[in-house]
């Protein structure tokens, strides 16, 4: 019986050794997993930092876009002011061109009337000259007895 008890004890000692070895392996595996999780956690922290940097960059880009948008609004206001000025200048020019056009038309009518008057005078003087020349020829022909 005593031999059996020793066998049981040996078995229990072997079991304890195996259990301790298993626990040791599990502990080592858990330590490796913890190290891996620490590495993964560090990588996640790095990724978080990179995302934060990207967010900061996006915020900077957004601020720049807002600044550009404000500048475009200022430029639009300036263009609107310039457009109003051009429209005002266009209206002034139209009024002045209308005045000049009416003055040119009245001057054209005046020149035409005076040209017509001069043309009539020239024709009348030409007719008088021709009739005077014909009268002179008739007088000469009569005095030299050609007729």
Protein described:
The chain has 147 residues and is mainly α. Helix content is 97%, strand content 0%. It is built from one helix and no strands. It has one helix at residues 2-143. It is rod-shaped, with a radius of gyration of 60 Å. The termini are far apart. The model has no long low-confidence stretch (mean pLDDT 89).
Question: What's the SSE blueprint?
Answer:
Blueprint: H1 2-143
- Please give the oligomerization state of what you see: single chain
User: Average pLDDT across residues?
Assistant: 89
- Largest sheet descriptor: none
Low-confidence stretches: none
Summarize the structure in short.
This protein is mostly helical and 147 residues long. The protein has one helix at residues 2-143.
Question: Which tags fit this structure?
Answer:
147 residues; mainly alpha; 1 helix; 97% helix; rod-shaped
